[in-house]
């Protein structure tokens, strides 16, 4: 199946079937994509062969994913914790890499091959962790942020490792200068991205947004992402890392959420191709030919790696429970490990029999990763051997404040809408607290003197710490529909008597939220339009009583299509 049209069609059909079957079985879609790749690959049916076209499309998917992960971070928060990021990432790679490398040497593996095997084992998948934590709403909690920080360090660490692999592949000896040049490229890229491009990019995106053409905004956003990735590639840096830095820079702009919504469909489609590509590289026959070798590598990539991750994360300052959570989240192999192994086998640095067993085990660990991340709380509970889990510091702060409150209001989000709601509640002397996961928005609200706390309101433990069982009302002011639905679902199942007010940007989001009882939704464009219409009627000489009646009738007419079977606000 060599022609590009048939090749692309087969991939899309395989991805759609895999996603549907995985959803039906209530499994992560990532597992479906990996299984589809194995089934279509050369070791099973042979319908598809790994090639340059597929590899490129898969890499673009990873680039888009890392860009959207970068949007969740802020330069201020990363700068404030860079020492911990450096120490956690360095220790994690040293602990795992040295253990696997020394064990390989003890088994008679060549020193160069042992080094590459250790480096490949130490790395985890940014694509899997980023996607799964985002779906679970845990990118901003402490163990999620530390896991992503370690992954960023791993991405940077791949640069000198790939430089060494290239030198060894050419039959040369590694030189310190060549490796330092690669590392310097990363530093230069980061400094330029943060210091030089921050304001110009924000102004440029504002200028594009004012043109009012959605297609132009989307194309410019995609151009910036791929341009950052290409710039990183030119400097010899991982393209995904370049996209991640672009996400950090643009994540502090006013267009963050719009870019997320526009790019998400492209990311999801192309990312599915990446995981199918991973499945294509798995030699299913290797498991039957050398099952003990594959199982030994799997043990090193999952249970042993988790055990070695934990002390590194504890030394970085995480609590006992959070260190176990992050250790489980990172307890699998990654795409850069696949890249190292496949490159090393192609160049002959690692013999094919040794490398293929590690490659199969690595792919198996990536297949198990979504389930491990989804159930990391349960696994951490087993490993800690206790039912008591200390809350992250952000939840402790919320809990201390909420312990003094009763019949209070919980405001989820400290954006412009959240701050207005908080100011109104303060004027009315109604006890309340605000929870915000965006560091910059948190700082703005704090500077305004609002009772804001840094945390993720879509996380169940945070809602519990905020005293949701004693609250009189929950107000959701952010525009992340999945997180908003998570809050609503939790409240409807555990605290159905607590009313919920939510905002939405689109009718589609409003309908999803209105599907739950006890929820009132205000579509922002509708609310703003009605307020403007009311002012227009009053300025036109219509008396206040008639204006109230006209606006009430107009509100009912406009809101009835959202959910005709229910009373709308």
From TrEMBL:
Localization annotation: Membrane
Pfam families listed in its UniProt record: Na_H_Exchanger, TrkA_N
Domain RCK N-terminal span(s) in chain numbering: 406-523
Transmembrane segments: 30-48, 60-79, 85-103, 115-134, 146-169, 176-196, 216-245, 288-308, 329-350
Membrane-related topology note: Multi-pass membrane protein
Keywords: Membrane, Transmembrane, Transmembrane helix, Transport
Family: Belongs to the monovalent cation:proton antiporter 2 (CPA2) transporter (TC 2.A.37) family.
Protein's UniProt name: Cation:proton antiporter
Source organism of this protein record: Thiobacter aerophilum
